[in-house]
Inverse folding.
């Protein structure tokens, strides 16, 4: 097979960005190429240029785009996933929100983990907060973790995970927040899980979404790509409304909210780019 | 080495302008809309920006306005390159913070001369 | 919620309340809600709410929406214009009527926006817009039309594009026509391209890459030597494009014989400092020529060289030659291979037919 000419890659990349809000750097050529080749074989398409054409003009219902999306995104969830982004949150964004709050003697912190699945993300956030906020006991902290899938929510409620889910937890945090259970499983300590409130929620349910207000942070990582363009816009619309002014929104690190709404403000904090409601 | 950011929703125009810019001895990065342009400009420092106006999502005026809010881009020349030729459009460009407004189809020599002039005055 | 409350929320202090009121209107699907939403655009300042207004309009499936959006195409406000384009695109074929109506606007900017909108709608009903655009008086409309019909592979415009290509004076127009020809051209287009640019030397600047690509896509079997000339005179910038085009040329013409002189040049090129992927591709191309005995021997000689790229490329080339005895020879060489990647590359040819 011919190597994926940068031009053909750019066409495919632009279309993925347009339809899914997912952005891939030139450095990801090889990664994408392998996955595109799989799709090409299934669809009996011979060249990358032809595949780009199929994606752009031969995919009216977006099925091929979704099939490609399923290959280029990993569904796996584990604690401390996308560490750099969490660093941006902990090192930069959190202080920006906490400082004025503290000065005004209003020690509340509201976080929403949207599409929390089996709970790895909200518990990760809970750990981070307890580690980074030395006076967290003085704060009224609530991490609302929502998902549409009751089975996953039940798993989150149990807060028991296998090795794969916890392998990225920084060693120094491990013993403070996790307990080793039998047969290679780990439980999250109640002291930590109590920061998290689990709730069933369908992101497309606009009535339910309107009930979500006054958040300082919203995390919705690698969830929106599975929505169609119109629904995605509606969800992000609600996220904006759900944030307090000055609140931050975090999508997956390859996802770009800019494609969905330009109402958020882009900030550079150290090496990180983040989006904020003004 | 002078780094140029080229923002345009037309792949052909991006390629055309990239070639002109490379011919002038600069390097370049491209973006397909204002938001992507803003992300790239924020993540890295460019010495000069070429932007289209009519793009989906964030247009060139909004891009220019927002970029000017970034202190790193206070003095960086921004050239608007657009099909629209009316005085009102040009006025909007300057109000948004652009230094120059060129009308398409692009005159390569004029573009290079303008870029060198704008870079030289810094 | 009653109508008074709704209207009160539309002008509420809080941006979020206004946002939700707008969203509710989007679910009302009435002509009045369309009128209210469009009217709000005149004084709603928040960018967020303005975006929500368009999301709401997008949701309403009524002809009034399409009419209003079509009217916004000549707005002075770029935001309104671009949002209108997006809404009209989302409405698909239903937008064709209003778009066609606006295609006769005196303002070329409006005509370009109509074209931009149509380009995002896959439906035969917008085809007349492309027909109008390719013959438009305004050069920017034509350039945009060329780009779109090339991307969308609208082959029915081939002869119109060829005519434009031959007479274009403005560089961007010529480029746009050339790019479109590369997408929708056929063998007769090569004659047209040669008419404007008979030789590689006659091609301006960076269009050379395209000319070379056209050579690969449309060149005749007897034109293999043109590749040789280009590589002889190249300044390094076109090597990648030339190797690419050569592979496509082979794909169309099968095993063509390579001259002694060209073969010598190719061997020099293989040893030159090329990008890895270009070298790999070049070696694969080498395996696509006729007279494989000499070539096979050469490729096997590369397997003994320390350069790993050469080894991997040689394996690709040998596989491409596709002869069972060569594959067997390659297999026996495998046992001597110490590099696992090299061994793996050879291992693949067990699965070759």
């Amino acid at each position: 097979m011919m190597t994926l000419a940068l031009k053909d890659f750019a066409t495919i990349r632009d279309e993925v960005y347009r339809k899914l809000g997912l952005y891939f750097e030139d450095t990801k050529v090889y990664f994408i190429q392998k996955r595109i080749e799989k799709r090409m074989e299934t669809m009996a398409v011979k060249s990358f240029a032809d595949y780009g054409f199929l994606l752009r003009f031969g995919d009216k219902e977006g099925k091929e785009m979704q099939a490609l999306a399923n290959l280029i995104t990993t569904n796996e969830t584990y604690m401390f996933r996308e560490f750099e982004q969490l660093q941006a949150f902990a090192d930069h964004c959190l202080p920006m929100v906490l400082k004025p709050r503290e000065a005004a003697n209003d020690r509340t912190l509201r976080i929403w983990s949207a599409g929390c699945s089996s709970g790895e993300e909200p518990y990760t956030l809970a750990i981070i907060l307890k580690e980074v906020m030395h006076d967290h006991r003085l704060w009224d902290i609530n991490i609302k973790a929502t998902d549409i899938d009751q089975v996953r929510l039940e798993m989150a409620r149990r807060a028991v995970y296998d090795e794969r889910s916890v392998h990225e937890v920084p060693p120094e945090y491990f013993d403070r927040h996790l307990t080793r259970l039998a047969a290679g499983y780990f439980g999250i300590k109640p002291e930590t899980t109590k920061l998290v409130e689990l709730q069933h929620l369908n992101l497309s349910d606009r009535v339910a979404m309107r009930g979500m207000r006054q958040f300082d942070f919203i995390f919705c990582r690698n969830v929106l790509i599975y929505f169609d363009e119109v629904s995605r816009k509606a969800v992000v619309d609600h996220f904006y409304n759900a944030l307090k002014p000055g609140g931050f929104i975090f999508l997956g690190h390859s996802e770009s909210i800019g494609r969905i709404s330009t109402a958020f403000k882009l900030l550079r904090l150290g090496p990180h780019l983040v989006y904020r409601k003004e | 080495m002078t780094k140029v950011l080229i923002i345009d929703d037309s792949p052909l125009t991006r390629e055309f302008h990239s070639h002109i810019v490379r011919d002038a001895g600069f390097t370049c990065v491209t973006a397909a809309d204002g938001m992507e342009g803003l992300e790239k400009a924020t993540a890295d420092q460019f010495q000069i920006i070429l932007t289209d106006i009519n793009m989906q999502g964030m247009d060139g005026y909004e891009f220019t306005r927002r970029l000017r809010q970034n202190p790193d881009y206070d003095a960086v020349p921004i050239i608007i390159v657009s099909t629209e030729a009316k005085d009102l459009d040009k006025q909007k460009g300057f109000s948004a913070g652009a230094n120059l407004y060129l009308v398409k189809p692009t005159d390569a020599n004029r573009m290079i001369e303008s870029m060198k002039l704008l870079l030289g005055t810094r | 919620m009653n109508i008074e409350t709704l209207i009160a929320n539309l002008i509420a202090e809080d941006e979020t309340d206004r946002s939700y009121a707008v969203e509710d209107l989007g679910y009302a699907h009435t002509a009045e809600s369309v009128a209210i939403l469009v009217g709000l655009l005149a004084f709603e300042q928040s960018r967020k709410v303005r975006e929500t207004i368009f999301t709401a309009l997008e949701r309403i499936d009524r002809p009034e929406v399409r009419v209003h959006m079509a009217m916004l195409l000549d707005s002075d406000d770029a935001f309104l214009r671009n949002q209108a384009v997006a809404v009209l695109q989302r409405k698909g074929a239903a937008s064709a009527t209003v778009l066609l109506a606006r295609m006769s606007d005196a303002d070329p900017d409006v005509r370009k926006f109509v074209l931009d909108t149509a380009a995002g709608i896959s439906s035969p009903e917008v085809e007349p817009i492309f027909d109008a655009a390719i013959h438009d008086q305004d050069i920017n409309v034509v350039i945009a039309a060329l780009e779109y019909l090339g991307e969308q592979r609208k082959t029915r415009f081939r002869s119109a594009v060829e005519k434009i290509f031959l007479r274009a004076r403005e560089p961007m127009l010529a480029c746009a026509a050339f790019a479109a020809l590369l997408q929708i051209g056929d063998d007769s287009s090569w004659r047209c391209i040669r008419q404007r640019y008979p030789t590689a030397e006659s091609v301006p600047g960076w269009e050379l890459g395209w000319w070379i690509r056209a050579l690969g896509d449309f060149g005749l079997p007897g034109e293999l030597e043109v590749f040789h000339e280009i590589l002889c005179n190249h300044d390094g910038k076109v090597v990648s494009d030339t190797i690419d085009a050569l592979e496509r040329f082979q794909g169309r013409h099968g095993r063509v014989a390579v001259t002694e002189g060209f073969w010598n040049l190719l061997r020099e090129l293989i040893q030159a400092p090329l990008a890895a992927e270009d070298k790999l591709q070049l070696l694969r191309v080498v395996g696509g020529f006729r007279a494989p005995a000499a070539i096979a021997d050469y490729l096997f000689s590369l397997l003994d060289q320390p350069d790993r790229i050469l080894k991997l490329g040689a394996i690709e080339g040998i596989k491409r030659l596709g002869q069972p005895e060569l594959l067997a020879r390659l297999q026996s060489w495998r046992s001597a291979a110490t590099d696992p990647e090299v061994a793996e590359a050879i291992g693949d040819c067990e699965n070759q037919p």
Summary: Residues 1 and 111 of chain B are 18 Å apart (CA to CA). Helices of chain B lie at 11-23, 34-43, 60-68, 87-96, 108-120. The domain at 3-120 of chain B is CATH 3.40.50.2300 (Rossmann fold).
